[in-house]
Amino acid sequence: MSTTQTNKIETIKASSTKINEVDFSNLSFGSVFTDHLFECDYKNGEWQKPVIKPYAPFLLDPSTRVFHYGQAIFEGMKAYKDENDDVWLFRPDENYKRFNTSAVRMAMPEVPEDIFMSGLNQLLQLDEAWIKKGKGNAMYIRPFMIATGTGVIANPSDNYKFMIILSPVSSYYSGEVKVLIAEHYSRAANGGIGAAKAAGNYAAQFYPTNLANKEGFQQVIWTDDATHTKLEEAGTMNVFFRINDTLLTAPVSERILDGVTRKTLIDLAKSIGIQVEVRSVLVSELVEAAKNGSLKEIFGAGTAAVVSVISGFSYQDVYYELPKIEFTMALQLKTKLENIQNKLEEDNFGWTVKI
Amino acid sequence: MSTTQTNKIETIKASSTKINEVDFSNLSFGSVFTDHLFECDYKNGEWQKPVIKPYAPFLLDPSTRVFHYGQAIFEGMKAYKDENDDVWLFRPDENYKRFNTSAVRMAMPEVPEDIFMSGLNQLLQLDEAWIKKGKGNAMYIRPFMIATGTGVIANPSDNYKFMIILSPVSSYYSGEVKVLIAEHYSRAANGGIGAAKAAGNYAAQFYPTNLANKEGFQQVIWTDDATHTKLEEAGTMNVFFRINDTLLTAPVSERILDGVTRKTLIDLAKSIGIQVEVRSVLVSELVEAAKNGSLKEIFGAGTAAVVSVISGFSYQDVYYELPKIEFTMALQLKTKLENIQNKLEEDNFGWTVKI
Ligand SMILES: Cc1ncc(COP(=O)(O)O)c(C=O)c1O
Ligand SMILES: Cc1ncc(COP(=O)(O)O)c(C=O)c1O
Fold first, then answer.
1. Cα–Cα distances in Å, from B132 out to B24, B25, B80, B336, B354?
2. Burial B34-72 (b: 16+ CB within 10 A, else e)
3. Which of A240, B25, B38, B42 has the fewest CB atoms within 10 Å distance of its CB?
């Protein structure tokens, strides 16, 4: 992967910086944004001239398509600063490809690699002071695209806006995570948009997740909507199950997001001799393993939380607490991944890309 | 249903009207908007003071939740002007209730009846000159709500904006409608949001509908995502099948929108002695009926197109053309419905409400 560097993007600099107003030791995830953003509009069937400009609100007509028919996709990635002040991206080509896969499924135009990658690079360079060193610290990068055409008729939009915004984040501590296995609600349909990072997929999960929260569960693990017998993924994370010494995770499908962290952990696990099985995991199998003591760990994997340990799950009103283990695969894999991302350990996979 | 009239809503009038720029004999659906809109914001856990003001773009932060996590719902209804210049709504209580059903499913706050109904009434009164008389002419009303909170974290928003915008429309002529029966793609999951008028449901259909368009089909009739054996609904219409002299339509479910036109046509059909069966209709049954000649009509039912005649369907690469019938149930029901909506025929059902 080359981080294609083309001509310099037109850049309108902010007259002052907000960086001094930010308490970097106390960041709430995704709530603080840097001084600039990257923007490129699509109209008349083509991408217009991209621009980097001060982060600011923009005007939209009340009939803008994204409000009514939901064409909106995004990506989530991170940049890391190493001890030499170099800034690194982690597998940005994966996010770029997935963004366009989402675009196709949502009938939106694909973003050219050059626009995506140069935008990303030049924006990160400009707001580089906002990226802090140290494990856990990162710049969360949010590329997204919305339908900006107008008119209340249920057709694909003619105009779109692609933007990248940056949000500095620090270690994500979610507290204890207990999960509920979905028995009625679902996040995705066969032949639906579950594999796309489409805005509508997230809103669909809020209500059932709220219900789970009220019962004391932080997250829902979704199951297939037809039978609710197969374990799929969590709201913003793929899920791994350790039964004895084997790590299990569902294959990606049109209902499951092809997570970058998931595929990275699979490779990392294999590289350190952990046996990994990518196959459908049945709820019944999980319950059985919990009962007979062979279920050792469950953890979520995603860019935001990296690896998120799950302490127990509930299914059919029975709560299954996981054993407390000293040396977990979750911690082993998380440490290895963060070391590679932060350039503390050699990257033998070619995943890290310098900007 | 009472059209609750409360205190006058604060109204900021447009300094001039755009009405003279509009060619009312040549309206493209949903593309022209009146001079004013109704707006009410939700923040700090409550609905703020509503306002009617000039139709205009508004500012949103790039991290606004609706762009990223898709909390957005809408309604579609119409107002009609009769020969005495009185303006009538059609079953507005149904749209109001459905709006809040959608809100609950999308973890958004319900809109109080008073805000919804007074907003609707006072806005229509103010822009009343835009409503034209005559069958086919109507004011298309678009109430909608979007998440306006900021921050890129996949949680329900704290702030929301509820708006009503108005678009004058004339007779909807869609040309010949051939449909494709979905064999792979789907619009809704069991336990999903198919029954909500949520923005994300529409974007999800664009790509498969584009594929169908390319093969010469204007619309897709969706089937259940688990087996693709049961006929469900079209993109923005419920669907009726006439086999011999019986009208069949699928029961509403968590995958199917509870259409106002659908339930109205069921009642109208029954009132004129047509036998109606609300039950699952199998694709195999439809194909069989098409083959043996008992399939007489298929039509869609929805607020925008009212009743939309379908001339044939394709399934497993076989195209089934419907017979050309003189006196169709579709036309019979459409005429009756439009007569009631336009106050040309007595409304024995109490469906029409004067504003
Ligand atoms: C639904 C869903 N599943 C899984 C993931 C994890 O994907 P990644 O590891 O690429 O961040 C995400 C996103 O972050 C997601 O939104
Ligand atoms: C998915 C869907 N089905 C059916 C309908 C028909 O509903 P109604 O008759 O209330 O307009 C609509 C909307 O108009 C719709 O969006």
1. 8, 10, 8, 20, 16
2. bbbbbbbbbeeeebeebbbbebeebebbbbbbbbbbbbb
3. B25
Cβ neighbours for A163, distance < 8 A, ≥ 6 positions apart: A37, A38, A39, A40, A143, A144, A145, B62
pTM above 0.90, yes or no: yes
> Is residue A306 exposed (0-12), middle (13-18) or buried (19+ Cβ within 10 Å)?
buried
pLDDT (tens digit, 0 to 9) for every residue of chain B, 355 residues total? Answer: 334 445 799 999 999 999 999 999 999 999 999 999 999 999 999 999 999 999 999 999 999 999 999 999 999 999 999 999 999 999 999 999 999 999 999 999 999 999 999 999 999 999 999 999 998 899 999 999 999 999 999 999 999 999 999 999 998 777 889 999 999 999 999 999 999 999 999 999 999 999 999 999 999 999 999 999 999 999 999 999 999 999 999 999 999 999 999 999 999 999 999 999 999 999 999 999 999 999 999 999 999 999 999 999 999 999 999 999 989 999 999 999 999 999 999 999 999 999 9
User: Domains plus CATH for chain B?
Assistant: 3-169 (3.30.470.10), 177-341 (3.20.10.10)
Nearest residue, CB atoms, A72 vs list B55, B67, B208: B67
Distance from CA of B177 to the nearest CA of A (A): 16
Nearest-angstrom CA–CA distance, A4 and A114: 6
By the 8 A CB rule, do A160 and A108 touch? yes
